[in-house]
Amino acid sequence: MNAKFNIGDTVYRGTYERHEKWVTCPDCLGSTHIKVVLGDGTEIEIECGGCDPGGYQPSTGIIRQYDYESIARKFVVTGVKVTTIDVNYELDNFGSGSYYTGDDGNVFATREEAIAKAGEDRIKYEDEENKRLMAKTKNHKSWAWNATYHRTCIKRFKDALEYHNKKIKISEAKAKDVRS
Predict the structure, then answer these.
(1) Which residue of 9, 45, 84, 108 could cross-link 113, Cys pair, CB 3.0 to 4.6 Å?
(2) By residue range, what is the domain housing residue 88?
(3) Is position 61 within any domain?
């Protein structure tokens, strides 16, 4: 293999940056709740799992997404490593304090070529990232599971409330008997 660039050549390496943005949740359309129809036809409203940030925080109605920008960074070749498989370049942009490398497929003579390659890489990454972001917080749990879980919790808390109300009435009655 022959190197396309020599030590001291100015080259461009394409990459992309992502910028955070917030968009309306596609599941609840910003309302933070969704309606679920149970098997018996009963409709209940539960908190949206699509925009649920996790923990004890309520659903937000918005989800994080990213905009991506293809860019080309200018470097100077400071080293060339040629093997039977490929060519790797040591790159320095003099000032960032970072060390970069690039192979023949990622280092270009012009800014335009580097941006074109970065655009291809960006599109692949952006598609995969958006698939992950648009998924439910717990993909293995269905909306029906969420509804059943919350109904079970409500029933358990109602039973506990009824039990403790009975205990209060008994305690108040006993307290009155002691005072008499």
Answers:
(1) 108
(2) 10-31+57-137
(3) yes
**Cα–Cα distance between 53 and 55 in angstroms, integer?**
7
Give how far Cα 29 sits from Cα of 46, 51, 61, 167, Å. Answer: 14, 10, 7, 44
Number of domains in the chain: 1
Residue corresponding to tokens 């309606």: 35
Convert the chain into a string of H (helix), E (strand) and C (coil).
Answer: CCCCCCCCCEEEEEEEEEEEEEEECCCCCCCCEEEEECCCCCEEEEECCCCCCCCCCCCCCEEEEEEEEEEEEEEEEEEEEECCCCEEEEEECCCCCCCEEEECCCEECCHHHHHHHHHHHHHHHHHHHHHHHCCCCCCCCCHHHHHHHHHHHHHHHHHHHHHHHHHHHHHHHHHHHHHC
17, 79, 168 from 125: Cα distances, Å: 11, 29, 60
174 pLDDT band, cuts 50/70/90, is confident
